[in-house]
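Shipment paperwork, digital attachment
Item: protein structure file
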Amino acid sequence: MADIKKTHWKRRITQLVFFGVLGKFSFYGIFRCPFAVPYVSCSSCPVVQCPGRKLWLFLWAGLGLSAICFGRGFCSWACPAGLVSELLTKYSFYKDRFKGFADVFLSGGKYIVLTACIILFIYPCNPRWAVPIRTGEFWNSLKLTFEHADTLWLVRTFFVLAGILLSLLLSSFWCCYLCPTGGILEAVKRFSVFKYFITNNCSDCNKCREVCSIGKRPGENNCTNCGDCQDICPAGAITLGRKNSPE
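Attachment content:
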């Protein structure tokens, strides 16, 4: 158990570091970004105090490199929303995860959200749905943004907020079933260079599934390549490498 905690806390420390770097950017993207799709039009954003104006290109470049190297590793090691969702999951009312057809069906939600984001970005050129007003202190500015935003912006913002808070009801709901970035990474993770996979030594004890924050075995749908399961395996059947993970 000590080894498990050691691995887990290494990841938690990394998550906290990235939360410090990207947390404000993520907050602005959800609650202050005037665009329909946050994080992709930062160079022309009128919110001059948003850190995204300096970070967004580095973020997408780093995310692409991360996807090539570690698949969905960004979700479990660096994503601020992933950290929040994981912490909320500890207090979720429904601890059991969806399995089988229900899991596959609900997983399609993140691809629907991703498709909607792509359409909004390409077809109407990522319209502005809010006028981010900067008057006085931060919270007053945030309040004014909500008061003067278009209905579509309010719907988008409350959708994201509700999706993340749903992790209090259903474990890791946002990350598994609604996050469009997770949808991109899920689609390309099979081509990643390094991933956790199960060897032929596996005894199907499912202890890896029990320790996983989203109830997955390595390589399964929505596995975020976190590595928390490696040290729990009594057969030593989980390893990080270049071999393709079994589905």
